[in-house]
Design brief:
Strand content: under 5%
Structural class: mainly alpha
Number of strands: 0
Order of helices and strands: HHHHH
Distance between the termini: 90 Å
Helix content: over 70%
Number of domains: 1
Keywords: Membrane, Transmembrane, Transmembrane helix
Number of helices: 5
Radius of gyration: 23 Å
Protein backbone atom coordinates (compact mmCIF):
# COMPACT_ATOMS: atom_id res chain seq x y z
CA UNK A 1 0.00 0.00 0.00
CA UNK A 2 1.70 3.12 -1.26
CA UNK A 3 0.50 6.45 0.09
CA UNK A 4 0.42 9.31 -2.40
CA UNK A 5 0.75 12.78 -1.05
CA UNK A 6 -0.33 15.89 -2.89
CA UNK A 7 2.16 18.64 -3.32
CA UNK A 8 1.65 21.88 -1.46
CA UNK A 9 1.18 23.68 -4.78
CA UNK A 10 -1.67 21.38 -5.80
CA UNK A 11 -3.31 21.80 -2.39
CA UNK A 12 -3.15 25.60 -2.60
CA UNK A 13 -4.45 25.56 -6.19
CA UNK A 14 -7.44 23.51 -5.02
CA UNK A 15 -8.19 25.98 -2.21
CA UNK A 16 -7.94 28.94 -4.60
CA UNK A 17 -10.30 27.22 -7.02
CA UNK A 18 -12.80 26.62 -4.21
CA UNK A 19 -12.64 30.28 -3.17
CA UNK A 20 -13.18 31.42 -6.76
CA UNK A 21 -16.26 29.19 -7.01
CA UNK A 22 -17.53 30.54 -3.69
CA UNK A 23 -17.11 34.16 -4.79
CA UNK A 24 -18.80 33.39 -8.12
CA UNK A 25 -21.74 31.79 -6.29
CA UNK A 26 -22.13 34.76 -3.93
CA UNK A 27 -21.89 37.17 -6.86
CA UNK A 28 -24.73 35.36 -8.59
CA UNK A 29 -26.81 35.42 -5.40
CA UNK A 30 -26.18 39.18 -5.02
CA UNK A 31 -27.22 39.81 -8.61
CA UNK A 32 -30.46 37.87 -8.06
CA UNK A 33 -31.05 39.84 -4.84
CA UNK A 34 -30.54 43.17 -6.59
CA UNK A 35 -32.83 42.11 -9.43
CA UNK A 36 -35.51 41.13 -6.92
CA UNK A 37 -35.19 44.51 -5.19
CA UNK A 38 -35.58 46.36 -8.50
CA UNK A 39 -38.69 44.31 -9.34
CA UNK A 40 -40.17 45.06 -5.89
CA UNK A 41 -39.48 48.79 -6.32
CA UNK A 42 -41.20 48.69 -9.71
CA UNK A 43 -44.21 46.99 -8.11
CA UNK A 44 -44.23 49.62 -5.34
CA UNK A 45 -44.35 52.43 -7.89
CA UNK A 46 -47.11 50.64 -9.84
CA UNK A 47 -49.20 50.25 -6.69
CA UNK A 48 -48.66 53.90 -5.77
CA UNK A 49 -49.67 54.94 -9.28
CA UNK A 50 -52.87 52.91 -9.17
CA UNK A 51 -53.88 54.01 -5.68
CA UNK A 52 -53.05 57.71 -6.10
CA UNK A 53 -53.67 58.13 -9.83
CA UNK A 54 -55.68 61.36 -9.59
CA UNK A 55 -53.36 62.94 -7.02
CA UNK A 56 -50.29 62.05 -9.06
CA UNK A 57 -51.92 63.37 -12.24
CA UNK A 58 -52.77 66.72 -10.68
CA UNK A 59 -49.33 67.13 -9.09
CA UNK A 60 -47.63 66.10 -12.33
CA UNK A 61 -49.60 68.66 -14.34
CA UNK A 62 -48.83 71.33 -11.73
CA UNK A 63 -45.12 70.61 -12.19
CA UNK A 64 -44.20 68.71 -9.03
CA UNK A 65 -40.97 66.84 -9.24
CA UNK A 66 -40.14 63.27 -8.39
CA UNK A 67 -39.92 64.06 -4.67
CA UNK A 68 -43.35 65.68 -4.64
CA UNK A 69 -44.96 62.76 -6.44
CA UNK A 70 -43.32 59.82 -4.68
CA UNK A 71 -42.16 61.15 -1.32
CA UNK A 72 -43.58 58.24 0.70
CA UNK A 73 -42.13 55.59 -1.57
CA UNK A 74 -38.69 57.19 -1.67
CA UNK A 75 -38.64 57.54 2.12
CA UNK A 76 -39.81 53.93 2.59
CA UNK A 77 -37.11 52.51 0.32
CA UNK A 78 -34.39 54.78 1.74
CA UNK A 79 -35.23 54.08 5.39
CA UNK A 80 -35.42 50.34 4.77
CA UNK A 81 -32.01 50.35 3.09
CA UNK A 82 -30.53 52.54 5.85
CA UNK A 83 -31.83 50.17 8.53
CA UNK A 84 -30.10 47.33 6.69
CA UNK A 85 -26.87 49.34 6.45
CA UNK A 86 -27.01 50.23 10.17
CA UNK A 87 -27.61 46.58 11.04
CA UNK A 88 -24.56 45.63 8.97
CA UNK A 89 -22.50 48.27 10.78
CA UNK A 90 -23.60 46.96 14.18
CA UNK A 91 -22.75 43.40 13.09
CA UNK A 92 -19.43 44.68 11.66
CA UNK A 93 -20.09 43.31 8.19
CA UNK A 94 -18.21 45.28 5.57
CA UNK A 95 -19.75 43.25 2.78
CA UNK A 96 -23.22 43.95 4.20
CA UNK A 97 -22.53 47.68 4.26
CA UNK A 98 -21.28 47.62 0.65
CA UNK A 99 -24.26 45.60 -0.53
CA UNK A 100 -26.65 47.84 1.43
CA UNK A 101 -25.21 51.00 -0.09
CA UNK A 102 -25.33 49.44 -3.56
CA UNK A 103 -28.96 48.40 -3.02
CA UNK A 104 -29.84 51.90 -1.82
CA UNK A 105 -28.43 53.53 -4.94
CA UNK A 106 -29.90 50.90 -7.27
CA UNK A 107 -33.31 51.27 -5.62
CA UNK A 108 -33.30 55.05 -5.86
CA UNK A 109 -32.16 54.85 -9.47
CA UNK A 110 -34.95 52.36 -10.22
CA UNK A 111 -37.52 54.66 -8.58
CA UNK A 112 -36.30 57.54 -10.72
CA UNK A 113 -36.40 55.62 -13.98
CA UNK A 114 -39.66 53.75 -13.39
CA UNK A 115 -41.56 56.70 -11.96
CA UNK A 116 -40.69 58.97 -14.87
CA UNK A 117 -41.95 56.44 -17.38
CA UNK A 118 -45.05 55.39 -15.49
CA UNK A 119 -46.11 58.86 -14.26
CA UNK A 120 -46.70 60.05 -17.78
CA UNK A 121 -48.78 56.97 -18.54
CA UNK A 122 -50.86 57.53 -15.39
CA UNK A 123 -51.50 61.17 -16.32
CA UNK A 124 -52.55 60.29 -19.85
CA UNK A 125 -54.81 57.50 -18.62
CA UNK A 126 -56.42 59.71 -15.98
CA UNK A 127 -57.02 62.55 -18.44
CA UNK A 128 -58.49 60.22 -21.03
CA UNK A 129 -60.96 58.85 -18.45
CA UNK A 130 -62.12 62.33 -17.44
Amino acid sequence: MNARFATVGNYIDGIQKSLEELFALFSIVLMVLMTAVVVMVMCLIDVANRVNAKEISVKYILGCGLWGLYRREILFVSLTALIGICTSIVLRSRAGVLVGVALLFISLFAIGVVSRKRSTAVVLETISKE
